[in-house]
Write a structure and sequence with these properties.
The complex is a heterodimer of chains A (about 375) and B (about 280).
Chain A (H helix, E strand, L loop, with lengths): L5 E8 L13 E2 L27 E7 L10 E7 L12 E8 L31 H39 L24 E7 L15 H11 L21 H12 L5 E3 L25 E8 H10 L13 E9 L17 E12 L4
Antiparallel strand pairs in A: 1-6, 1-7, 2-3, 2-6, 3-4, 4-5, 5-10, 7-8, 8-9, 9-10
Chain B lengths: L1 H17 L24 H5 L6 H8 L6 H5 L7 H7 L4 E14 L2 E13 L4 E9 L2 H14 L2 E2 L19 E5 L2 E7 L6 E2 L2 H10 L4 E6 L5 H13 L19 H4 L23
Parallel strand pairs in B: 7-8
Antiparallel strand pairs in B: 1-2, 2-3, 3-4, 5-6, 6-8
The chains are: A alpha+beta (about 375), B alpha+beta (about 280).
Chain lengths: ~375, ~280
C-alpha cells in the first residue's frame, strides 16, 4: 500500500494576482497559464454550467506522467467565482491539458510567442525537496521564472519586429496576425495567487519514546496509583476511535492533516485518496476513450483557508462560501488524447480533456 | 505489577517529549505535575492551526467567543483545537492505561488503551478512550478524543438557591454496558460521594456535592467511567420547569456569519434574543 504521496505545500504569494507564469508552474489561484496562447478551447468549457459566468482558476498543477512518458501535462481546476454557484458541485471543472505523446518536437512550431521550455521548475513531483531548504530554492526559481517571463516578452517583441520586417521583404505581404500576449482580461475575478512547492509525505506511526529523564513528577503519581491496585480494569477490549461529532474516517483524515497542517493538495497518480467521509461517488469512465478513471490528486481544506484569509474584506468573494473538506480529482487512467491531427499523434498540438471532480462536503453546515 | 508501572512511567515520560510532534518543541518546562495536567503553553501550536471545517474557521477568526454558542445549536465539533481555543482552562488527566491483547497466529498482540478525562472544573468535561500500539500514542490520541467530546454539565441546588450551583439539578442516571450510575443532589458540604474513579470525572466536571449509586459490574471500570460520563451528559437533557417557556430560536453561526443564503440549512432562521439558561 505504500504509495508515495506528494504534498503541495504553500510557497510565496504572487506579487500580483494576475501575473503570468509558464505552464510548468504549479500554483493556486491567479490566471491560468495555458501552454500556448490560443488553445482552441471551446468557450463553454470555460464557463460555469449553472450560470454561464467565466470560470476562474483555483489550482494549476504541472503533472507529467513518467510511466506513460508524457511530459507536457497540466491539470487545471476551475470554479465559478460567483458566491451562489461556488458550493454546488456542478460549478467546478477540471481540465487536463497535454501534448499528444510520441514526438518530442521543439515547441516553436505553431507558437509565435517563442515560449521556450521553462527552467526546470520546482514543481517536478518526483523530487524530494527538503522542507527547510525549499523556501530558498523556491525563491531562486521564482526569480528564474520571472526572468524567463521577461525573456519571453523580449523575444515576443523581437519576433514581432522581425515578422514585420519579413513581411515587408516577402513578395506577398500576407497579413500575419501578430500574436501578442493577450491583455490581461480584467473582467474576470481572480483568486489570490500563491505558488506551490512539493514535499513527499513521510507518514509513519509516530512512536515518540523519549528518555525517561523527566520522571520526577511522575514518581509521586505512580506511588499514588500503586495503592489502588485492587481496582482491576477488567474486560477491556480494543475500541475504535469514537467522538461525539466526528466519525472514524474523519478522525483519520484529520490525523493525516495534522501531520502536515499546511498541505494544499495531495498528489498520487493512481493511488488512493484520503477520504473525509465514507460515501464516495463512483468516478466513472473517461468519456473519450472509455478507460476507467483513477484518482490523481485532491485539494485539501488548508487551501480553502488560505484563500479565505487572503480574500478577507472583499465582498462577494467566492471562497467565503465554500464549505468543502476535500475535492477529489479523477483522471483518465490512460491519460488519453481526445483529438489528434488526422488520427495519428503528432506531438504538436495540445489536447484539452475534461475530467471528473467530486466534492466531500462538511455536512455540519 | 511493579515492572508494568515502571514501563508506564517510562512511556509517559517519553510522551512528554513526543508532544513536540514535529513542531520542534521538546520538553516544555511550563508544564506542572501530571496531577494538575497540562495547561496553557499551547499558544504556538494554536497559531499554526489551519482549520479544516467551517466551524473551525469561524472559531479561528474569533467570531465565536463561547463554546455555549456551539452547544446551543448542537453543532458537531470535529477539531480539537476549537475546544482548546474556546475553553481555556482545560486540564487533563490520564486515568488508566491498560493493555488489551488480541490473539494472533504469531502469538499475542498487545496494544495499550488509555482513558483520559479533561475538564475545567467549571461545567465542562470530556472523556477520551484510545487504543494504540504505544502508550505515548494512546495518551496523545485519547487527549484529542477527550477534547472532542467535551460536553456542558448542568449544576443546580439541593435546597435554597444561595450562592453558586453546587450539585446536579435533579436525579439523573447514566448507563454503559451493564453499569448504571445514578446521581442524586446532595446538600452543600457533602462532597462527592462516589468511588475513586468516577469521583475524578465529577471533580473535573465541577460538581462539588453529589450522592451516587451504582449498579452492575462496576469492576469493568471502563464502563463505569463511561456510565458516569453519560450521566453527566444527561444533566442538560432533563426537562425542568425552567425550560417550559417557548424556545426563542437564534441564528446558527453559519447563518449569522455569511452574507447570503448559500444553501438552505436545516435549522430555523428566526432571529430573536438569546434565551438565557439559568442554573
Amino acid at each position: 500500500m505504500a504509495e508515495e504521496v506528494h504534498l503541495g505545500l504553500p510557497g510565496p504569494w504572487a506579487a500580483d494576482y494576475r501575473e503570468k507564469a509558464d505552464h510548468y508552474t504549479t500554483k493556486i489561484g491567479g490566471v491560468p497559464d495555458w501552454p500556448t496562447g490560443d488553445m482552441g478551447i471551446k468557450p463553454e468549457m470555460l464557463q460555469c454550467s449553472l450560470c454561464g459566468t467565466k470560470l476562474c482558476l483555483v489550482a494549476q498543477v504541472y503533472a507529467p506522467v513518467v510511466k506513460l512518458n508524457i511530459e507536457e501535462r497540466i491539470i487545471y481546476v476551475l470554479v465559478c467565482p460567483t458566491p451562489e454557484c461556488g458550493p454546488r458541485p456542478q460549478s467546478w471543472k477540471v481540465l487536463r491539458v497535454q501534448k499528444c505523446r510520441n514526438v518530442e518536437q521543439t515547441e516553436g512550431d505553431g507558437d509565435e510567442l517563442g515560449q521556450g521550455t521553462g527552467p526546470s521548475s520546482t514543481s517536478v513531483p518526483e523530487e524530494q525537496i527538503d522542507k527547510n531548504k525549499s523556501h530558498d530554492i523556491n525563491d531562486d526559481d521564482f526569480d528564474l521564472d520571472a526572468l524567463a517571463e521577461a525573456l519571453e516578452q523580449a523575444a515576443t517583441l523581437a519576433s514581432n519586429s522581425k515578422k514585420k520586417n519579413k513581411s515587408k521583404c516577402a513578395n506577398a505581404p500576407i497579413e500575419r496576425p501578430v500574436l501578442k500576449e493577450k491583455p490581461a482580461d480584467l473582467s474576470i475575478p481572480v483568486l489570490p495567487c500563491f505558488y506551490i512547492y512539493y514535499d513527499k509525505e513521510q507518514y509513519r506511526v509516530k512512536g515518540a519514546v523519549g528518555s525517561s529523564s523527566n520522571e520526577f513528577p511522575l514518581d509521586k503519581e505512580m506511588t499514588d496509583t500503586g495503592n489502588y491496585e485492587e481496582e482491576k480494569w477488567d474486560g477491556e477490549k480494543y475500541e475504535y476511535d469514537k467522538a461525539i461529532g466526528a466519525d472514524r474516517t474523519f478522525l483519520k483524515f484529520k490525523k493525516r492533516l495534522d501531520a502536515y497542517p499546511e498541505q494544499c493538495f495531495r498528489y498520487s497518480y493512481g493511488g488512493k485518496p484520503l477520504l473525509a467521509a465514507t460515501k464516495v461517488q463512483d468516478a466513472g469512465t473517461c468519456r473519450f476513450c472509455g478507460s476507467p478513471r483513477q484518482y490523481e490528486l485532491q485539494l485539501m481544506s488548508p487551501l480553502l483557508y488560505f484563500l479565505h484569509e487572503a480574500g478577507k474584506g472583499s465582498s462577494n468573494y467566492g471562497p467565503s462560501n465554500w464549505t468543502w473538506l476535500t475535492l477529489i480529482v479523477y483522471t483518465c487512467s490512460k491519460s488519453c488524447c481526445p483529438s489528434s491531427c488526422g488520427g495519428r499523434p503528432c506531438g504538436c498540438c495540445w489536447d484539452v480533456a475534461e475530467e471528473e471532480i467530486t466534492i466531500q462536503e462538511d455536512e455540519a453546515v | 505489577m511493579a515492572d508494568r508501572g515502571g514501563e508506564r512511567g517510562g512511556e509517559r515520560g517519553g510522551e512528554r517529549g513526543g508532544f513536540g510532534r514535529g513542531f520542534g518543541r521538546g520538553g516544555r518546562g511550563d508544564r506542572g505535575g501530571r496531577r494538575g495536567g497540562r495547561r496553557g503553553g499551547r499558544q504556538q501550536e494554536e497559531e499554526k492551526w489551519v482549520p479544516v471545517t467551517k466551524l473551525g474557521r469561524l472559531v479561528r477568526e474569533g467570531k465565536i467567543h463561547k463554546i455555549e454558542e456551539i452547544y446551543l445549536h448542537s453543532l458537531p465539533v470535529k477539531e480539537h483545537q476549537i475546544i482548546e481555543l474556546l475553553v481555556p482552562g482545560l486540564k487533563d488527566e490520564v486515568m488508566k492505561i491498560t493493555p488489551v491483547q488480541k490473539q494472533t497466529r504469531a502469538g499475542q498482540r498487545t496494544r495499550f488503551k488509555a482513558f483520559v478525562v479533561v475538564g475545567d472544573c467549571d461545567g465542562h468535561v470530556g472523556l477520551g478512550v484510545k487504543c494504540a500500539k504505544e502508550v505515548a500514542t494512546a495518551i496523545r490520541g485519547a487527549i484529542i478524543l477527550a477534547k472532542l467530546s467535551v460536553v456542558p454539565v448542568r449544576r443546580g441546588y439541593w435546597g435554597n438557591k444561595i450562592g453558586q450551583p453546587h450539585t446536579v439539578p435533579c436525579k439523573v442516571t447514566g448507563k454503559c454496558g451493564s453499569v448504571t450510575v445514578r446521581m442524586v443532589p446532595a446538600p452543600r458540604g457533602s462532597g462527592i460521594v462516589a468511588a475513586r474513579v468516577p469521583k475524578k470525572v465529577l471533580q473535573f466536571a465541577g460538581i462539588e456535592d453529589v450522592f451516587t449509586s451504582s449498579r452492575g459490574s462496576t469492576k469493568t471500570l471502563g464502563n463505569f467511567v463511561k456510565a458516569t460520563f453519560d450521566c453527566l451528559m444527561k444533566t442538560y437533557g432533563f426537562l425542568t420547569p425552567e425550560f417550559w417557556d417557548e424556545t426563542r430560536y437564534v441564528k446558527t453561526p453559519f447563518q449569522e456569519f455569511t452574507d447570503l443564503l448559500a444553501k438552505p440549512t436545516k435549522g430555523l432562521v428566526i432571529e430573536a434574543t438569546v434565551e438565557t439558561v439559568e442554573a
